[in-house]
What does this fold into?
Amino acid sequence: MEAREISIVVAEDHALVRQGLRLMLSRAPRVRWLGETGDGEGALRLARELKPDVLLLDLGLPRLDGLEVMQAIAAAHLPTRVLVVTARQDAATVQAALSFGAHGYMLKTDDADALVSAIHTVGDGGYHVSPELATLFGHGTTTAHDGLTSREMDIASHVGRGLSSKQIGAELGISEHTVRKHRENIARKLGLRNAAELVAWSIRQRLPEA
It folds into this structure.
């Protein structure tokens, strides 16, 4: 079965960056460009009108900033998933974006292949955090996962690949509901607040793939 197309909208205040992204992503498999905008109000309007699968969102936008856009998208219960693409990599900003509902967080220093992979991951229901940012999460010790069961470790290794609960369940032969319960237990034990933080923690720990 052929993987479905992922529709995107890009919100970036620099026209040259938007043009570069459009040229690059026009050649990317499974990616369909719906529209672009240079400010936060435009991003919210396009999310409401076009309902893209993924919004590529810079945080430093005029009018509404990226965090305000995410808050508005969440409040309106829009189906669009948000992939932040920004130069900001301080812990406070990253954690604020994830807490406001970002499904992915990429740095503008990441390469084109990483961006396309992140769009696919987020568009397919998973989560992506740039590996460079993984050190902002977790407790920083190699034994941080000692409290997890073998099944929870297995689930965490799949989470680190950015897979959704449905995809993990299919790979492991268990229900999506069971995967969600395991993820909740893992997050509670590790003191993590959302799926994106769990992805970052898994990357930080360099958990082996099952």
Q: What stands out?
A: The chain has two domains: 6-135, 139-205. Residues 140 and 204 are 8 Å apart (CA to CA). Residues 139-205 form a domain with the Arc Repressor Mutant, subunit A fold (CATH 1.10.10.10).
